[in-house]
Every structure is written in C-alpha cells, then in structure tokens.
Write a structure and sequence with these properties.
- The chain has 244 residues and is mainly α.
- It has a domain at 3-160.
- It has helices spanning 3-14, 25-30, 35-58, 68-90, 92-98, 109-117, 124-154, 176-199, 230-243, and strands at residues 156-157, 160-161.
- The chain has a two-stranded antiparallel sheet.
C-alpha cells in the first residue's frame, strides 16, 4: 500500500478518531441529532484537518519547537474562520444547527493531535492525506451516529421518511442521552466483530487496532498516540543505558 493509501486507511479504519481513539467526543455527542448534522460537522472538520496538516507540514522547519502549539492554533483558527464565513453565506441552516461547535473546531483534540504527532514531523503530501483520512474517518463516524439517532428518533434519515407509518419514534434518541446509547452500541458492535473474528481464527488486527506498544519505544512515526519523536527516543534510551 502506498503512503497516501496507508494514511487514508489509517484514518478510516485502523485509527478511526471516534470509534478507535475515542477523540472529539464533544461534537460527536452534541451535533449528531441527524445524519445531515453529522455529515456537515464531519466534512467541516475534515477540511480543516487536511488544510491545517498541509500548511503545518510546509512550515514545520520554520516553526520553532517552543511555540509550535500557538502556531498550530493560529493556522487552524484561520481555516475555521474562513469555513464559518462560507457556511454562514452558503449554508446558513447548517451553520445555525452546528452553532458554537464550529468555532470549537480550533481546539478539537483530533486536529491538534494530528498536527503534533504527524504533520509537524512529516512531509506535506503524506500529511495532507493523513488529514483527509482522519477527516473521512471522523465524518463517517458522525454520519453513522447521526443516521441511527435520526432513524430511531424520527423515523427518517437525511430527512427522508424510512420507517412505516406504524412506527412510533423513540424521542430519547434525538436528545442528549441518545448520543451515548448509540455511540456505546456501535462501539460494542465493533468489539463484538473483533472478538467473534478472533475466536474464529481470523485476522482482526485491523479492527480497532489502535496502539499496543510503549510510546517511548515506538518506531511508528505517524502514530497519533506517540508522544516522542525518534530523536527524543534515542536520547532517552541512551540516558537509560548510561544510568544502567
């Protein structure tokens, strides 16, 4: 698999930010009252992720390490501002539905996490596809949660009625508790597939794999859970050897 494809696959499946890493829970639980809201929030975040990753990667050699977080926030905030103005002009209803969660994209842990763990350490093209992959994974997760909540809560998906007239909507699913129920059910279903596959002798390492290694000794440069870069790793390992 080429580098771009690997980054896309990583964001969609291997390290899906919602179902695997459990990041960005605030917008995930708050705005997914419908499939359209979930799709809109996910797509907006995906654009910011991709563009901020690209710009941060292009500027990574110019941004001093000590001020990298403020620099990341300024870059991300610039894209969020542009997108919010576009939504206000072109999709005012969606902008109103998403409300304060659009400005809060600036401090979304998914975006800051990818900037810190991947874009700041990697070339521009892989960083761009890493942002696209993570954004698509986030969009897929939010759309799924929103579709289930809308279907059970109103009997429709994307505004189109699906359930029969005899169906009685379960109102709690479009309220705050419904988000927890649906997220828990979808995550449990994913775990069920993994456990069942493992018992059957199938390779399920690609389902909710996440990371099982010690971050300090990890050699995967693009891992979102990795706190140390390779240079820092070697310095720490050398110090430990000297002490021993």
């Amino acid at each position: 698999m080429n580098k771009a494809g690997e980054r896309l696959y990583n964001g969609l499946i291997k390290e899906n930010p919602t179902f695997v890493l459990m990041l960005g829970m605030c917008p995930t639980l708050a705005v997914t009252t419908s499939a359209m809201n979930g799709l809109g929030m996910g797509a907006t975040t995906a654009v910011v992720l991709a563009m901020s990753n690209l710009i941060i990667s292009l500027l990574r050699k110019l941004i001093p390490g000590k001020v990298r977080i403020p620099a990341f926030i300024v870059i991300i905030a610039s894209f969020v501002t542009v997108l919010q103005l576009l939504l206000e002009a072109l999709l005012p209803e969606l902008n109103k539905a998403l409300g304060v969660y659009i400005p809060l994209i600036v401090v979304n842990c998914i975006i800051l996490g990818r900037a810190e763990s991947y874009a700041y350490l990697s070339p521009p093209i892989p960083s761009l596809f890493d942002g696209i992959g993570m954004g698509l994974g986030f969009t897929f997760a939010l759309t799924c949660i929103g579709a289930v909540r809308e279907l059970l809560g109103t009997g429709a998906v994307f505004g189109y009625s699906i359930m029969p007239h005899s169906f009685t909507p379960i109102g709690i699913f479009v309220l705050a508790p419904g988000a927890f129920f649906v997220l828990a059910a979808l995550t449990a279903f994913q775990n069920f597939l993994k456990i069942t596959g493992a018992k059957a002798g199938k390779d399920v390492s690609k389902i909710q794999s996440g990371c099982s290694e010690d971050c300090m000794n990890c050699g995967e440069k693009g891992c979102s859970r990795r706190f140390y870069d390779n240079e820092t790793n070697m310095e720490i390992i050398d110090l430990e050897k000297e002490e021993n």
